[in-house]
Write a structure and sequence with these properties.
nucleotide-binding; 28% strand; 2 domains; binds adenosine-5'-triphosphate; elongated; 11 helices; binds magnesium ion; Rossmann fold; 14 strands; transport; 306 residues; Alpha-Beta Plaits; alpha/beta
Length: 306
């Protein structure tokens, strides 16, 4: 397993308040890691420590495998990010803004500017002043700037904050493209479950400064799936009938006489009719299980995410 980033008991104290407490995060190469938590959970504080903007009170950060002995500059050259708001010279064009940044940081060549603008879909607007950019365009320009030095890992703090649904969709697609086409690993924070749902391959849930759970997205989905719970006399025959008559395959026998059917959630009466029509005694049929949202609610002790 090749890790891009691991934190060990990472903590930050402000006065007598622990903003971040013993966070152990494991981000693998190729992950789109969704760092999910409500306002004040500790997302920005964690990302700022990771980016070296503030010093942890305790704990360690390992980059690119714990055996790495690379120095800080070498590591920073492989990562990029936007924490909080990206600032631009509003009276300069997008391309000029990137050129200023490129020279300031002493990196890349002039051609890389159009290359990164193209990769975020802003090549056509390269000469437009940033003043005239929409929020979504500015957000994409910020991402373009963070790509200038060809990082392998991008850290983005709530990158879709303030965007409208179309802008959110655009930026999400951009992340997916960058992940697929360039193999960039992402750490993206958000307080929106729906957003993480559509993007992340791995999810870390932070609450009250602690990482409550870190899990691959598929595992999370399975944990939180809804199903029809069907209580019958003969589970084997019932399962056979469901397969034959309704063509279902996604089910399991949870206990003797108890089937969990992960399909046909909207058609319990059809399931019931089919089974009783074949002489199966259906004692009970009901929807059960958690939605992803219920699952998070339980995890965070009932506090809604948003
Ligand atoms: N510089 C600071 N001084 C004192 N307390 C701070 C400081 N920065 C953050 N905190 C506190 O630490 C906790 C975590 O804040 P943080 O900004 O990391 O949360 P967040 O998850 O990014 O929230 P949001 O969704 O609102 O951006 C909060 O209680 C906050 O008040
Ligand atoms: Mg924040």
């Amino acid at each position: 397993m090749s890790y891009v980033l691991q934190t060990h008991r990472l903590s930050k104290r402000y006065g007598n308040k622990l903003a971040v407490e013993n966070i152990n995060m494991n981000i693998r190469q190729g992950d789109i890691y969704g760092f999910l938590g409500q306002n004040g959970a500790g997302k920005t504080t964690t990302l700022r420590m990771i980016m070296g903007l503030i010093r942890p009170t305790a704990g360690e950060i390992d980059w690119f495998g714990s055996s790495s002995t690379a120095g800080r500059n070498e590591t920073m050259a492989r990562i990029g990010g936007i924490i909080e708001y990206p600032g631009f010279y509003l009276n300069l064009s997008a391309a000029d803004n990137l050129e200023v940044h490129r020279r300031l940081m002493g990196m890349g060549n002039k051609e890389s500017i159009d290359e990164v603008l193209a990769s975020v879909g802003l090549l056509g607007a390269r000469n437009q002043r940033v003043k005239e950019y929409s929020l979504g365009m500015k957000q994409r320009l910020g991402i373009a700037r963070s790509l200038l030095h060809h990082p392998e890992f991008l850290v983005l703090d709530e990158p879709t904050n303030g965007l409208d649904p179309a802008g959110i969709k655009e930026v999400r697609q951009l992340f997916l493209d960058l992940a697929r086409q360039r193999g960039i690993t992402f750490l993206i924070s958000s307080h929106l479950l729906g957003e993480i749902e559509q993007l992340a391959t791995r999810v870390g849930i932070v609450h009250g400064g602690r990482l409550l759970e870190e899990v691959d997205y598929e595992v999370l989905q399975r944990k939180s799936r809804r199903y029809l719970e069907i209580r019958v006399g003969d589970d084997k025959r019932a399962a056979y009938i469901l397969e034959q008559r309704l063509g279902v395959s996604d089910y399991l026998v949870a206990a003797p006489g108890v089937l969990r059917l992960y399909e046909m959630l909207d058609e319990p009466s059809k399931v019931n009719r089919t089974l009783t029509g074949e002489g199966i005694a259906v004692e009970e049929i009901k929807r059960a299980g958690d939605s992803l949202e219920d699952y998070f609610l339980k995890l965070t002790g009932g506090d809604p995410l948003v």
